[in-house]
Specification:
Blueprint lengths: L3 E5 L2 E5 L9 E8 L4 E12 L5 E5 L2 E5 L1
């Protein structure tokens, strides 16, 4: 709930949001629709929620910004 989402290379990245306890999360998850698997990718420096997220492509490099 209240997370940022972005699509890159056919995968959906889910950043932050709020858990069942209502507290903000610092987790970055990756959902691969081809396998149906959700994987924890990284932790952000601080928990965030109610934010925006975009994927920026630059010279074939992928950067995530939230």
């Amino acid at each position: 709930e209240s997370c940022g989402m972005s699509v890159c290379n056919g995968k959906i990245f889910i950043l932050g949001g709020r858990g069942e306890n209502g507290e903000a999360s610092d987790t970055i998850l990756c959902y691969d629709p081809s396998t149906g698997i959700i994987t924890g990718v990284a932790a952000m420096p601080r928990p965030i929620s109610y934010h925006g997220c975009v994927t920026i492509h630059r010279y074939n490099e992928k950067f995530y910004h939230s």
